[in-house]
Amino acid sequence: MALMAPNPSSQPPLWVTSGDPRAAVWKMVQGVYRFSALYAMARLDLAGWLSDGPRTAAELASSCGARQDQLTRLLRALTAMGFLEAADDTFALTEYGATLNSRLPDSMRWAVLSAGEPGSWNAMTGVTEAVRTGVAPFPEAYGSMYGYLERNPEAGHDFDAFMASRSKDAAAALARQYDFSGIRTVTDVGGGVGLVLATLMTAHPALQGTVFDLKEVAQRAEQFLAVRNLTDRCQFVAGDYFDSVPEGSDLYLLASIVHNHGREDAIRVLRQVRAAMRPDSRLLALDVLLPQDGRPHFGFDLDIRMMAVFNGGQERDQVEYAALLSEADLRVTRVEALPPTPLSMIEATPTF
Fold it and tell me: Which CA distances in Å does 193 have to 160, 190, 212, 309?
């Protein structure tokens, strides 16, 4: 390609200089416009259509079922943002745009689709009311997140793919960093289709596993485990972790579960896990821990999303997290970051 697109780090409008404090606000406002274009790129799967090489606007319009004149406007904006590069009327992916190729195992397409999905997007506009009232806008409008995903298969598929891609790096880091010697059985509480547990079991062949989640997940989980040849070592058990948890495992895994709940519900979940544990069992939670010094961190951004999507959902710092565990008769025995992800692993054992 003759013309290389700029880096997609946004620039403020030309009438605001970079030293002007208004520039920071303009970048945020522009971010809304730019994300809308990026969402359209992801929904139309432009990265997929361009993954085999450059194509014209007419060819892309035919492939993705769009009007050529409107698509050209989108392609022009994406080129200016740095996700495409252009020569004449031919467009190609840059290294940034290529990250939205859904053929890649770490594709960012699913993160964009999940964030821009109408229910999720609309909920974010209700953060002001959530701050005023303490009521999350998403369940107010749509009911529970997981019920909504069941009723909207496209959104459910995109969410599952996003969670799988987001969990992959954390699961791999956990498999490397945590000492699984002496652990034979693992129960993944609220484990979805079982991606984290499957990663651990593949890395540590001696492990036997149980994925515990709502019955609605059963078919997808069983298919997921079968494809990975884990059905002889791993079972799916249906249930609600507010009511009970399978008993007697060496290790109980809660990956991005506690942050979905406010204090009372989080303690309810942890108490059910504690009731299922033996005296020598361990609990291992994976969650974002907010820095206590207030430095910039992904967790503060995610905390705003939690406010919009889950009643009571929130990110916590290490002291707050330990307090929840203590209320459930569990004590923290180890905390360790899981780079390159923003997650940490928090290990806890029974206090009696």
Answer: 8, 9, 9, 21
**Number of neighbours of residue 339 by Cβ within 10 angstroms:** 12
Contact 119, 148 (CB under 8 A): yes
Domains and CATH numbers, the chain: 22-101 (1.10.10.10), 116-350 (3.40.50.150)
Please identify which residue in the block is written with the tokens 């609220």: 190
Residue 243 CB neighbours (<10 A): 8
**Tokens encoding 164:** 């799988």
**Model-wide pTM > 0.85:** yes
Q: What are the CA-CA distances from residue 90 to residues 96, 116, 169 (Å)?
A: 17, 27, 35
* Rounded-to-integer distance, Cα 346 and Cα 242, Å: 21
Q: Which residues are part of the catalytic machinery?
A: 259
CA-CA distance, 285 to 274, in Å (whole number)?
13
Q: What is the pLDDT of residues 189-213, one digit of tens each?
A: 999 889 999 999 999 999 999 999 9
List CB contacts of 110: < 8 A, sequence separation 6 or more.
102, 158, 161, 162, 164, 165
Question: Three-class SS of residue 105?
Answer: coil
Q: Provide the terminal-to-terminal Cα distance of the chain, rounded to the nearest Å.
A: 66
Dump the DSSP string for 120-158.
HHHHHTTHHHHHHHS--HHHHHHS-HHHHHHH-HHHHHH
- Nearest CA among 156, 159, 45, 166 for reference residue 103: 45
Alpha-carbon span 287 to 258, nearest angstrom = 8
Q: Tens digit of pLDDT for each residue in 270-326?
A: 999 999 999 999 999 999 999 999 899 999 999 999 999 999 999 999 999 999 999
